[in-house]
Amino acid sequence: MAQFTRYINSPVGWLRLQSTETHLTAVCFDAEEDMNSSVQPTILKETESQLKEYFAGDRKHFNLRLAPEGTEFQQKIWQLVEKVPFGETSSYLDIAKQSGSEKNTRAVGLANGKNPIPIIIPCHRIIGSSGKLTGYAGGLERKRWLLKHELANTTSAGRLF
User: Fold this and answer.
1) In CATH terms, is domain 72-152 a member of 2.102.10.10?
2) Contact criterion met (CB below 8 Å) for 119 and 13
3) Catalytic pick from 26, 96, 123, 126?
4) Residue 156, Cβ neighbours under 10 Å: how many?
5) Nearest residue to 79 via CA among 120, 20, 140, 47
6) pLDDT in the model for residue 157
7) Which residues pair with 30 in a beta bridge?
8) What pLDDT is attached to residue 156?
9) pLDDT on residue 30
10) What is the pairing mode between strands 126-127 and 90-91?
């Protein structure tokens, strides 16, 4: 299956978007711009547009066709993470309970860390039970920035860090 790539600059640095012809498969934090694929499917253009709206504070929900690759357990965790609303956080324990086993907090953390589509599948909204910011594949500074950005652009009374 063909893969396509598009690089975009964002407030959290360069992002590499990857897709099939119809579905977004990855958002990667890259240090610098590189060459876009010669063919740019609509999904990549739409992802860029929605991310720009998100970073401008105008988009609270993404509406994209996603195809993250992962195990059945990882897919289940990512589906739960997708439900955490803009401007709110949830804990690894909360997600573990929703997945059916509160003893799975470590496995939830590992699955969250393997999320191939960060920001859109909002793994940055998952924090420690104590409210502490814990690991983030894009780095804690990016996680902090994304959470502050959402807080500044919401009227939500939900729990934030």
Assistant:
1) no
2) no
3) 123
4) 14
5) 120
6) 54
7) 14
8) 59
9) 74
10) parallel
Q: Collapsing DSSP states into helix, strand and coil, what is residue 11?
A: coil
Q: Block means of pLDDT (10 residues each) for the chain, length 161 residues?
A: 92 96 94 86 98 96 97 96 95 94 88 96 92 83 95 70 48
The two structure tokens encoding residue 54: 């998100």
* Cα angle 52, 10, 130; round to 5: 95
- Strand ranges of the sheet holding 24-30, from the earlier edge strand across to the other edge: 4-10, 13-19, 24-30
pLDDT in the model for residue 96: 95
Instruction: Give the C-alpha separation, 80 to 77, whole Å.
Output: 5
29 near 113, Cβ under 8 Å?
Answer: no
- The question of whether 123 is a catalytic residue gets the answer yes
- Rounded CA-CA distance 18/102 in Å is 33
- Angstrom distance (rounded) from CA 149 to CA 12: 11
Domain map (residue ranges) of the chain: 4-55, 72-152
Whose structure tokens read 């289940």? 76
